[in-house]
Amino acid sequence: MSKTSHANAQAGAALQARPFAPIVQRLRQAGLRPTRQRLCLARLLFEPGDRHVTAEQLHSEANAARVEVSLATIYNTLHQFTEAGLLREVVIEPGRSYFDTNVTNHHHFFLEEDGALMDIPGEHIALAQLPEPPAGLKVSRVDVVVRVTRGK
């Protein structure tokens, strides 16, 4: 058995020990086939509760859980979950995105020193007026990121 096959067998055995039914149901309701990799990554993402995670963080967690998966597969899965409505992508700056398991209407504080996101309930931000979108386009969502630093 190859190293990859052995690692995947170990991960599969460890994950089989816990029930997958809620995760399987969540993926199916979103229109996604519950593959082994999706199940493993969904469990890592959703079981701890609402959180913000980068692809690199999820990759490290997967490796720690002995789920051998490439960073490219992590990115693909995160984008599939986002398109299916299971996650929200929060773009902080070009090349720096977080994936949020809380898909309700809310905004974020971004702690610049730590690179951490914290939720702001949607009703705590009030916009007086939105500009008219260009012809043929409509506003799908407004994301507010308030950048904060520690006061000295």
What is this structure's SSE topology?
Blueprint: H1 3-16, H2 21-29, H3 36-46, E1 52-53, H4 55-64, H5 71-83, E2 88-93, E3 96-100, E4 106-111, E5 116-121, E6 145-148
Parallel strand pairs: 4-6
Antiparallel strand pairs: 1-3, 2-3, 4-5
Helix pairs in contact: 4-5
Structure description:
- With 152 residues, the chain is of the alpha+beta class.
- It has two domains: 3-89, Arc Repressor Mutant, subunit A, CATH 1.10.10; 104-148, no CATH class.
- 38% of the residues lie in helices and 19% in strands.
- It has helices spanning 3-16, 21-29, 36-46, 55-64, 71-83, and strands at residues 52-53, 88-93, 96-100, 106-111, 116-121, 145-148.
- Strands 1-3-2 form a three-stranded antiparallel β-sheet. A three-stranded mixed β-sheet has the order 5-4-6, with no helix packed on it.
- It is globular and about 45 Å long.
- 16% of the residues are buried.
First and last CA, distance: 56 Å
CATH architecture of the largest domain: Orthogonal Bundle
Supply the CATH class of the largest domain. Mainly Alpha
Please state roughly what percent of the residues sit in beta strands, choosing from under 5%, 5-15%, 15-25%, 25-35%, 35-45% or over 45%: 15-25%
* Radius of gyration from CA coordinates: 18 Å
Q: What is the fold named in CATH at topology level of the largest domain?
A: Arc Repressor Mutant, subunit A
- The unreliable regions are 4-8
The tally of beta strands, per DSSP, is: 6
Per CATH, the superfamily of the largest domain is Winged helix-like DNA-binding domain superfamily/Winged helix DNA-binding domain
The percent range for helix content is 25-40%
Secondary structure category? alpha+beta
User: What best-fitting shape do the alpha-carbon axes yield?
Assistant: globular
Overall tally of structural domains: 2
Query: How would you state the average pLDDT, rounded?
Result: 88
What kind of sheet is the major sheet?
3 strands, antiparallel
Spatial order of strands in the largest sheet: 1-3-2
